[in-house]
Design goal:
Elements: E1 5-10, E2 12-14, E3 34-35, E4 38-43, E5 46-52, H1 53-59, E6 67-70, E7 75-78, E8 80-82, H2 97-101, H3 106-111, H4 115-125, H5 128-144, E9 147-153, H6 160-176, E10 180-188, H7 199-216, E11 222-227, H8 234-246, E12 250-255, H9 263-270, E13 274-277, H10 283-292, E14 295-298, H11 300-305, H12 314-320, E15 324-326, H13 340-350, H14 355-361, H15 364-369, E16 387-390, H16 396-400, E17 407-412, E18 415-419
Parallel strand pairs: 1-6, 2-7, 8-9, 9-10, 10-11, 11-12, 12-13, 13-14, 14-15
Antiparallel strand pairs: 1-4, 2-3, 4-5, 7-16, 16-17, 17-18
Length: 424
């Protein structure tokens, strides 16, 4: 057997499980395979063998040109997958932090020209080139923290021209840097100011003008909608999503974040790939998502940053058989964090998920949430060689430590794209 790259002597090699065509759920959510003295062999951009170091060294042909990485004392994981981000946007909103610390209500911030509408203004003003430049920077930050694949949403344009500009920026950023970006159209993120008194007009604009253009240019795989009280109702969301599905897009939803209006139930009804947020999901919503196999993409970093007391009921979902994934929700307002390592910590501490459940949630289940599990999310023969080596003695250490980037090396498509000198 031939290989171009051999990672060997890993203290732990965590494969996750990707053979199943469905995401992990229930008890299986916390089942991972850990190999001591593990090794993984890579040829071109694919994994060709996984096993112990001794086993792979016996199986591989001698090749003096082959690069070998000694991962002694380190943990090897699949490349991390972030299935919910808003990585493209104009401006930033750090000036709102002092207002939040004074408990100024969000609606007051919004009325003063802040909040999401300030991001919409900045995004509309930004050129395509400016959006590409800033999103490329954020993508490379994510790569440095171990993320090799991420979803990227539009939703800060809220006009045909600006939404298309955002999606074109995502396409270009995907092309020019290593992190694979999976595009999602989120035109139904909020009502823009010019349509504040014409909901029907904006919904018609999305269905009759935005969606056809997005599909025509092949700019998105998914369509998302913010189904929430005061944003888009269940019936409005159903109408938008059915139109998107008829045009060939797969479905995602922002659901049950603030008020339990039935977003999770709608996601299950329509066969959405995922429903995201879910802080106030109902028992019926949990049951229906479990029955439909809809993935719960939980965003605990957002809850943490907003200083909310109620987190998504991860334990109830797992026990009911809902497959759970985790994401950063990186955005300029409610979660200015693009580091999945921090999400690991928060999910263990506040969602009461075990380290093993969390590892699966940011690898194989997150890959399923992006429709990419056949090629990424686990370390298995035939899958893409997207791999992260962490400077950690075991995978539980990733949940134990926080505030430190533990990445040692990142391999993307079989190439070492990032190396960190952790020895000073």
């Amino acid at each position: 057997m031939k290989a171009d790259l051999l990672i060997k002597n890993a203290a732990q090699l965590v494969t996750s499980r990707g053979a199943s065509p469905a995401p992990l759920r229930g008890k299986n959510q916390g089942e991972i395979t850990v190999l001591a003295d593990g090794a993984v062999a890579i040829k071109d951009d694919k994994i060709v063998a996984v096993g112990t170091t001794a086993d792979l060294e016996k199986r591989l042909e001698r090749n003096q040109k082959r690069r070998e990485i000694d991962a002694s004392g380190k943990v090897v994981l699949p490349g991390l997958v972030d299935p919910h981000t808003h990585i493209v946007f104009g401006g930033s909103r750090e000036h709102e932090l002092s207002l939040k610390l004074k408990n100024v209500p969000y609606l007051e911030i919004l009325a003063a020209g802040g909040g999401i509408l300030s991001t919409v203004k900045a995004t509309r003003r930004a050129s395509l080139e400016e959006l590409v430049t800033i999103a490329e920077k954020y993508s490379r930050q994510m790569l440095a923290q171990g993320t090799t694949t991420a979803e990227a949403k539009s939703g800060y344009g809220l006009s045909t021209a600006s939404e298309l500009k955002m999606l074109r920026a995502i396409k270009e950023v995907d092309r020019i840097q290593p992190v694979d970006l999976v595009p999602t159209f989120l035109g139904a993120h909020a009502l823009p100011p010019e349509y504040k008194d014409d909901r029907e007009g904006f919904i018609s604009l999305i269905i009759e003008e935005m969606l056809p253009r997005v599909v025509e240019e092949k700019l998105a795989r998914y369509c998302d909608v913010f189904c929430e009280e005061g944003v888009f109702s269940v019936e409005e969301s159903r109408r938008l999503l059915l139109a998107a599905r008829e045009m060939g897009l797969e479905l995602k939803m922002h659901a049950d974040e603030i008020v339990p209006i039935g977003g999770a139930e709608l996601a299950a009804e329509l066969g959405a790939v995922s429903a995201d947020h879910l802080l106030v999901i109902s028992k019926e919503g949990i049951a229906r998502m479990a029955g439909a196999g809809t993935i719960a993409v939980l965003l605990p970093g957002t809850t943490f940053y907003l200083r909310e007391e109620r987190y998504a009921p991860a334990r109830a979902m797992i026990e009911a058989g809902v497959p759970v994934a985790l994401a950063t929700d990186f955005n300029p307002g409610s979660s200015p964090n693009n580091n999945l390592q921090l999400v690991i910590n928060i999910a263990c501490l506040y969602l009461e998920m075990t380290p093993a459940e969390v590892i699966n949630a940011i690898t194989i289940n997150a890959a399923h949430a992006l429709g990419r599990a056949i090629e990424i999310g686990s370390l298995e023969e035939g899958k893409k060689a997207d791999i992260v080596i962490f400077d950690a003695p075991n995978y539980e250490y990733l949940a134990y430590r926080y505030g430190t980037n533990l990445v040692d090396k990142v391999i993307k498509n079989g190439n070492v794209v990032l190396e960190v000198d952790n020895n000073g």
